[in-house]
């Protein structure tokens, strides 16, 4: 799996390098109050990063919440397993010797 991930990262970097070489120009960016000349590959990467940031934040928060939920469920499972083990011990324990009541002698003897 790590080899596939490495190959994809290398392909992405090669594609990004080719894009940068082919589009080696500056683009005017107007923010309303000021205009900038920005290198096109830098603008594309910056836009990608700004779009990726909310998704990354959402997924990180979701992952953190799921880890908390798993920890709570594991703690509950551990407690339930210990209660089950204790119940098994109590069920397998032989019953205590009960005192057998001696019958009362018949009246008049």
UniProtKB/TrEMBL annotation:
What are the record keywords, sorted? Cell membrane, Coiled coil, Membrane, Transmembrane, Transmembrane helix
- InterPro entries per the record? LapA_dom
Chain ranges of the Lipopolysaccharide assembly protein A domain: 23-84
Annotated coiled-coil positions are 63-90
The answer on whether this UniProt entry bears the keyword Membrane reads yes
A GO cellular component annotation in the UniProt record: plasma membrane
Q: Which residues cross the membrane?
A: 38-59
> What is the designated name of this protein?
LapA family protein
Q: Which organism is it from?
A: Sandaracinobacter neustonicus
């Amino acid at each position: 799996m790590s080899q596939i991930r490495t190959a994809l990262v290398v392909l992405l970097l090669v594609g990004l390098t080719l894009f940068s070489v082919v589009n080696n120009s500056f683009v005017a960016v107007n923010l309303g109050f000021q205009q900038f000349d920005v290198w096109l590959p830098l603008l594309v990467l910056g836009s990608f990063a700004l779009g990726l940031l909310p998704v990354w934040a959402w997924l990180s928060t979701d992952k953190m919440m799921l880890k908390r939920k798993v920890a709570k469920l594991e703690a509950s499972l551990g407690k339930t397993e210990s209660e089950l083990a204790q119940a098994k011990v109590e069920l397998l324990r032989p019953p205590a010797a009960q005192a057998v009541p001696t019958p009362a002698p018949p009246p008049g003897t």
